[in-house]
Each structure stands twice: as C-alpha cells, then as structure tokens.
Fold ABC transporter substrate-binding protein.
Amino acid sequence: MKRNKMLLATVLVLMVALLAACGGNNGGANSGGNNGGTNNEAGADTGGNAEGSDAPEEATIRLGYVGGGMTPVAVQIGMNTGAYEEANINIEATTFSSGADMVQALVGGSLDVVLGSYEHVLRQQKNGLGVKAFGEIYNGVGYALVVKSDSPYQTLADVKGETLAVTKVGSLSHTGLSEGLNEAGLDPDKDVTIINAGSGATMFAAIDGDQVAGGMVSEPTLSQMVETGDFRVLYDPEFPFAGIVVMADSDWVADHEEGMSRFLAVTDEAASAAKADPASAVDAMLKEFDQITPEVMEAAVTNNLRKVPEGLVLSEEGADKVHQSQLDEGVLTEPIPFDQAVDLSLLP
C-alpha cells in the first residue's frame, strides 16, 4: 500500500506539472490543432467537399475548455477517436487554467464554442451579451468527497466539527460540498471549517497527511486514490447541476448552424457509444492522461459518463440549481429566464 501511495503521489505531481505547462501560454491557454486542422478565420465553415460528394462541408470550430479534468469527457472522446474528423469537423482546441479566462476568449471573439459551467452563461446574459447554452455534456459538479478508508465517518453528517478541503472557496467543488452539507443538516459556515487545497498532488497530500478529514476530488485522481485501497468516497453529489454546458454566442451559431448541429450530434454519438462500452474509450482518454493505468482510466470513464445527459439535454432543474446559486451569491440581482439563456433546438 505504501508503495502504491508513493507511486500515486509521484504521478499526481507529474500531472500538476503537465497541467501547469498547458496553462502557461497565451494567458493561461494552450492551443492545439486537433484532427490535423488548420486555422480558419472566425471559425467559419469552409467548402471542403468535392463536387458531387455526399460528405458535408468542412466546419471549423475553435473550441475552449479547462484542462486537467474529465468533465468534458464526451468531447475528449470525440476528439481523440477522430469522430469529429470523420464528420468533417476540424476542432481547434485550446485548454485554459480557468473558466473566466476561457469565457473572456469567447466573448473577445478568439473562440467559437466553449465548455464550462452554466454560471458563465448567466453572467454573460447579465452583461447583455448573446452567449447561450446549446447543450450539456456533464450534469453535476464533477467532484466527490474523499476520506481515508479507515476514517470513522460513515455519512456526511459525521464530519461536523472537522476541517474539509475544496479546490478553492467559491469553486464548483465548494458548491457541491456546501449543498451536501446543507442536505445533511449541517451549516457549511458554522459546523465545519472549509479550506483551499488545490487539486491533484496538493489535495492528495492534504488528505493523506491528515491535514483535513476529507477533500473534494475529481477524476481521474478520484479513481486513482480509491484504487489504492487507502481511500474511499464518503459523498458523491448526485443532485442535478448544469456543470458543463456547450456555450457559444448566438450570432455565431446563427451563421454556423449546420456545423454546430453536426458538432452536437457527433458529441452525443461519441458519448452514447462510450456508455455502451466504456472500455472502448480508454485508449482515447489515455491520450489526455498518459500517466493513468488503463484499469483506473476505465473506472474514471465509467464514473464520468454516468453524468453525461441523454441527448445532451440541459434540464431546467439542473439549470435552476446553478441559477439559484448565482442569485444567492449576489452575482445575479434578478432572475434570467431559462429560455433566454438556453437554446436546445440544434440537439439531435
């Protein structure tokens, strides 16, 4: 067990170093021309089909998402299996170290589509911009509370009086933990102490070193830790939450409707195929996380695919959960109607 934990710690350090390297360019962004694509101005569709061919026109989408995690698993699988390329979609992917930087790139016009929390859609709607959600690829907060296997806690109510770790106060990990504590009858501000512990190696060290009773961990680190036998999941948020939506400016979508519709259809097909056979997606995801064993990756893929909604449909219940959190935090001063911020008309 000790050897496994040392190996896990080493792998997590390597993952953090790789993530830092990815986030160190262009203001926290790392650009990559997935599927062998070339840059096309303004993400426009280009006529790449030969006369008389049944192939659809080539569509180029400049895509942004936060790197280092697996909540965009449906799109990651699509990119790494060549599914988009087969559908004549050229994905130019850029990873970011923060959602705020990613959305700024979207509204600034250097990205066409981004994958992020629904809260970003609401904030841009508040600012009078036409950013909308056109589908959802992850229904949840993407984190679970991990404790040591020999800890005495059996339910979330048992952590009263303890110190718990989130990646950052105010983040999705914090939101998920706070909701769970409330459901367990605990006051997140009074009954526990919540601290920042980052992710990957720093979160692992906080839990393993008994600095905290437990910490909020995401995939694939979650499956890595559980696989050692030294850790277990105490609480996995199951409530609907619009965690990762497909967002874009509605004017751009109006000009590239067919390409956007095709992108959503291929994403849904990739997710459905992987749900039916999670092992088939392991090689694709190992291209994103090459320090993970195939066995751990299959567990991580299976866990995350559970949260990909059927047909990529964003539920009003999940959207309302995020909407209410933004009202409670004072980010929104008045409600924003669901149909003002969401357009599901292009889903397959």
